[in-house]
């Protein structure tokens, strides 16, 4: 498969992730707009409050990721995440000459996902829903947020290594297991950091918000440092544990 085709697959895959994942968060916030909140930490609505909302958002991510892996995984590997690409390169499972093209493709796809969602919904997608942008929630410090993102991405990458990278993994389950893992992580840490686990996933909404006069870039390092550290640590640990 040519690099051009794999580049295109990464653009399309990351577009799908960012349109449907953060898009679900936007719709949740727009539905809840104007409703009374029990506290500033809770964005939730309905009988289950915030937990129910984060589960729904997590499932949107899970299904989008599973769809991308099953449809495009055989073409590009469906990284759709710079942290995954860097982690695989760090253990020699991905060629260094293709790291930058993959990351560029992922950022382009993420930007397209957010900008087209904004075009579909209108300005309220940003002014009310923030385009699903991630940021630390009230009471969560910068260091806490980086640690949270690192732990969440550590789990994600460990699962990727076990079900998708390891040649001994049973075939056919990678998309389902990886998607559900992301959904579970979002349900747990969504109300702490927004649960990005992915620099590109955060980049897209930040870019779209910037065009609407909303500046969140001071938080961007959280979603670069945390995911990359967590993914690289998990890849190296799995490599160590799986060696015969």
Automatic annotation (TrEMBL):
Gene3D superfamilies: Glycerol uptake facilitator protein. Its main location: membrane. The chain crosses the membrane at residues 12-34, 54-72, 99-125, 145-165, 172-197, 217-238. Keywords: Membrane, Transmembrane, Transmembrane helix, Transport. It is found in: Membrane. It holds the Pfam family MIP. GO terms for molecular function: channel activity. GO terms for cellular component: membrane. The keyword Transmembrane helix applies. It is a multi-pass membrane protein. PANTHER family: AQUAPORIN NIP1-1-RELATED, AQUAPORIN NIP2-1. NCBIfam families: MIP (TIGR00861). This is MIP family channel protein.
């Amino acid at each position: 498969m040519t690099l051009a085709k794999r580049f295109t697959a990464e653009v399309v895959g990351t577009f799908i992730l960012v349109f449907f994942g953060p898009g679900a968060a936007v719709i949740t916030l727009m539905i809840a707009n104007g409703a009374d909140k029990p506290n500033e930490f809770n964005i939730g609505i309905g009988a289950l409050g915030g937990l129910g909302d984060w589960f729904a958002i997590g499932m949107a991510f899970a299904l989008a990721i599973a769809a991308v892996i099953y449809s495009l995984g055989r073409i590009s590997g469906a990284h759709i995440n710079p942290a995954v690409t860097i982690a695989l390169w760090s253990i020699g499972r991905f060629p260094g000459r293709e790291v930058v093209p993959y990351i560029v493709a992922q950022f382009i796809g993420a930007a397209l996902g957010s900008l087209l969602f904004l075009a579909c919904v209108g300005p309220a997608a940003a002014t009310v829903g923030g385009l699903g942008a991630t940021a630390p929630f009230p009471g969560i410090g910068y260091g806490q947020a980086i640690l949270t993102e690192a732990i969440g991405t550590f789990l994600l990458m460990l699962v990727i290594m076990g079900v998708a990278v390891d040649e001994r993994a049973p075939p056919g389950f990678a998309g389902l297991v990886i998607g559900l893992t992301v959904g579970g992580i979002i349900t747990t840490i969504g109300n702490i950091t927004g649960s990005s686990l992915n620099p590109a996933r955060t980049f897209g909404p930040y870019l779209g918000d910037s065009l609407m006069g909303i500046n969140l870039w001071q938080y961007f390092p959280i979603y670069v440092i945390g995911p990359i550290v967590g993914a690289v640590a998990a890849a190296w640990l799995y490599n160590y544990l799986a060696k015969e």
